[in-house]
Design a protein that fits this description.
Layout: E1 7-13, H1 20-25, E2 33-39, H2 45-50, E3 57-63, H3 68-82, E4 87-90, H4 102-110, E5 116-120, H5 127-130, H6 133-149, E6 163-166, H7 167-170, H8 184-194, E7 199-203, H9 217-237
Parallel strand pairs: 1-2, 1-4, 2-3, 5-7
Antiparallel strand pairs: 4-6, 5-6
Bound molecules: guanosine-5'-triphosphate (GTP) and magnesium ion (MG).
């Protein structure tokens, strides 16, 4: 519990056998539950997880088909909802989120100043030292585009995956219309802007260590900008625009609302 709020930490994982135990064992002891969504990993992610000793209860949900980082987070959100949590936090399985930042991320929500809190690595002092230059430039450009197209003109670090959201808000948005792959954070921002969700931005420490990134140049330069621009088109012309996007793998064969 954090200030009388039940907290779930959702951990989307795809082939993270090397770092996932460190992540689940590093969550603060006042977290109520860790919800790991294994997104059809082909390595020993689940095996190493079974030997982990997190400081709170942990449930694991496995996707039999890979749904993408967004698809994994959406499944985690649905479990946080059905398991009665008040706030769902997202921490990646590659140890790029600092658990010490978590109370600061939750503060604006438990003070009822925000419905969604988003980490902001670009506001962190020393970010230029910590974040590789191509990442810094990429995140800066994508954040600028997101300010223009995704409904929050002051969002500073749109790609940051370290977030906290109230399950009350999750209940109000159509999770099936959020783009499930890279670009998920931008598509989610757009969905939240449609229901006028209150956004808080909290400086968080950027961590770039020995994790292996799954982002290709094509994804960073083409797919994510396409997702962002299509959010803008949806604001102008309505929801059909998103369907113009090239589908990610497996999109076509999953029925709406079903957990992969
Ligand atoms: N790459 C990838 N990651 C996934 C997928 N499903 C879940 N994830 C998890 O989503 C989280 C974020 O993925 P990353 O590839 O690290 O993306 P990122 O952190 O935004 O980008 P980097 O800063 O390059 O690491 C990690 O915990 C992944 O294990 C998937 O289909 N592909
Ligand atoms: Mg990462």
């Amino acid at each position: 519990m954090f200030r009388k709020h039940r907290i779930a930490v959702v951990v989307p994982a795809h082939n993270e056998a090397r770092l996932i135990v460190r992540v689940v064992e590093s969550v603060p002891s006042w977290v109520d539950e860790v919800i790991v969504v294994d997104d059809a990993s082909t390595d020993a992610t689940l095996q190493v997880l079974s030997a982990a000793a997190p400081p709170c209860s942990m449930v694991t949900h496995r996707h039999t088909t890979n749904a993408g980082v967004g698809g994994a987070i959406i499944s985690g959100y649905r479990l946080a909802l059905t398991r009665g949590h008040d706030i769902a936090v997202v921490m990646a399985a590659d140890a790029q989120m600092d658990p010490a930042d978590l109370p600061f991320l939750l503060e604006p929500i438990v003070r009822n100043q925000a419905d969604y809190a988003k980490g902001d690595r670009l506001a962190w002092p020393g970010v230029r030292r910590e974040m590789p230059l191509p990442r810094y430039l990429g995140n800066t450009v994508l954040s600028f585009l997101s300010r223009v197209f995704c409904g929050y003109p002051r969002v500073r670090d749109s790609q940051c995956g370290y977030t906290a959201i109230t399950t009350q808000l999750l209940d109000r948005i159509d999770l099936d219309s959020v783009y499930p792959r890279y670009g998920f954070p931008n598509s989610l921002l757009f969905e939240l802007s449609r229901c006028k969700a209150r956004l808080a931005q909290v400086p968080v420490r950027p961590i770039y260590g020995d994790e292996i990134s799954g982002i290709s140049l094509f994804t960073a330069l083409v797919r994510v900008p396409l997702v962002i621009v299509s959010c803008g088109l949806r604001r102008l012309f309505g929801s059909g625009a998103l369907r113009a996007l090239p589908p990610g793998r497996d999109d076509k064969d999953r029925t709406a609302g079903e957990l992969p």
